[in-house]
Structure formats: C-alpha cells, structure tokens
C-alpha cells in the first residue's frame, strides 16, 4: 500500500489568495457591525417592552424573545431568506443575513438589558418621576447611565459570538470569509491554506474585539470612579490652607 504524501502548507499560495479573503473580510465585518447595531437597539426596546406594566406590550415581547432564543439561528436565516419574498419584501442575501443576525441576538441582548435595568434601585426612577421628570428623560438620564456599564462585558461577548456566527451567511449565498475560502478551494483543489487563514483571521478579530470590550469596560469603571469621588469645596480648601 503506497503511503500518502503529507499535506504541506504553501506560504506563497496563502499569500496569493490573501487579497481575495480580504474582500470577503469586509463583508464579514459589515455583517457583524450592522447586525450588532440592530441587536443593541432592538434588544433595548424589547427589554423595555417586556418590563412594561401594560400586558399588551410585555406579553408579545416575552413570547418573541423566548421563541427566537429557542430556535436555531440557521433556521431563522433560512426562513427569512425564503419567506420574506413571499410577502413581497425583497432583500439582498447580505441584508437578509444581517437582519437574521440582528433579530437573533436582539433576544439575547434583551435579557442582558433587562438584568441591567432591574439592577437600578427602584427608588431612583420613582424619585425622578416624583420630580415631574418625563418617563423618557428618567430612562435616558437616570436609569440607562447606571444600567449600561455593568452589562458591557455581556454585550461584548455577544458581539464576538455574532462575529463567529457570520460563516452561517454562506448558507444563503453570502460570499463572506467561509464561502470565499470554499470558492478558492473548489477552484484550486487546495483547502488547507484558505481554511487555515480564515481560522487565523477569526482568532485575531475575536482577540481584538475582546481587548476593545475590556478597554471600554475599564473606561466606564474609571468614569464611575471619578464621578463617585467627592470634589473638595472652596470652603474646605481655604480652611485647609489657613491651617
């Protein structure tokens, strides 16, 4: 029996296909950023609706969150890709994929937001409303500034998870990193180099995103620390000087 030759990594070939992967990388990054924007905004809205005392808002929001969290992302992506045209809504494959990512992760972000909102003491929004502050101003000036900093790490984790889920877009014909590597492999019958490169690219992007989230977390912690530090009054300063 003739032994098979070992697979060798061709660095020159990897360097030659890097520009093709670079164009697909832009698609991956665009899908991640746009999907996370949808997830962050829609997730906050769902969290607020779920906490509403009006059952006509809280019940549908809770059902939607549980339904999306209980079904696979790939199934949701296929459903939007094939069902939306039947309703007269025609979107490009990339737009459909971004919408699917945003809707899926909005349900997870909603639960994170809800935990952050419930961590704010009830007395603070009640006191703001007692001072005739509008509900919107109470939410944006009192509640959200205290609720958001503790949940930044969780939102950052979902951003990284969404980045790693973008290869699913290849199932609906979006030419992102995985699909581009498959196209290159099918044309040259060499899959080791493109698949290895996209693995390294995802690793680097995930590490950079994690560092960015940690930097934002440190900055918010420093801001809260400065806000909690009392500023000495002029009277105290002058008294200390005379002493």
What does this molecule look like?
78% of the residues lie in helices and 0% in strands. The protein is mostly helical and 243 residues long. The protein has one domain: MetI-like fold, CATH 1.10.3720. Helix 1 crosses helix 4 (93-118) and helix 1 crosses helix 8. It is flat, with a radius of gyration of 24 Å. The protein starts with 10 loop residues before the first helix and ends with a helix. The model is unreliable at 238-243 (pLDDT under 50).
Secondary structure blueprint with pairings:
Blueprint: H1 11-50, H2 55-69, H3 73-83, H4 93-118, H5 123-130, H6 135-165, H7 177-188, H8 192-228, H9 234-242
Annotation keywords:
243 residues; mainly alpha; MetI-like fold; 9 helices; disordered C terminus
Offer a concise description of the structure.
By secondary structure, the chain is mainly α. It is built from nine helices and no strands.
């Amino acid at each position: 029996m003739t032994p098979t030759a070992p697979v060798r990594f061709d660095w020159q070939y990897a360097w030659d296909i890097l520009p093709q992967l670079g164009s697909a990388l832009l698609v991956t990054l665009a899908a991640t950023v746009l999907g996370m924007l949808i997830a962050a905004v829609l997730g906050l809205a769902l969290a607020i609706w779920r906490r509403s005392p009006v059952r006509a808002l809280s019940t549908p929001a809770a059902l939607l969150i549980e339904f999306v969290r209980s079904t696979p992302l790939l199934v949701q992506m296929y459903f939007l890709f094939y069902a939306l045209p039947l309703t007269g809504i025609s979107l490009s494959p990339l737009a459909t994929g971004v919408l699917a990512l945003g809707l899926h992760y909005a349900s997870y972000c909603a639960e994170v937001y809800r935990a952050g909102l419930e961590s704010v003491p009830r007395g603070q929004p009640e006191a703001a409303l007692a001072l005739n502050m509008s509900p919107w101003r109470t939410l944006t000036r009192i509640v959200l500034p205290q609720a958001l900093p503790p949940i930044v790490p969780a939102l950052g984790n979902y951003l990284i998870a969404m980045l790693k889920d973008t290869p699913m877009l290849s199932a609906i014909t979006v030419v992102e990193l995985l699909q581009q590597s498959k196209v290159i492999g099918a044309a040259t019958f060499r899959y080791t180099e493109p698949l290895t490169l996209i693995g390294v690219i995802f690793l680097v992007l995930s590490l950079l995103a994690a560092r960015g989230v940690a930097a934002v977390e440190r900055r918010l912690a420093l801001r809260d620390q400065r806000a909690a530090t009392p500023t000495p009054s002029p009277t105290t300063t002058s008294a200390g000087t005379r002493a």
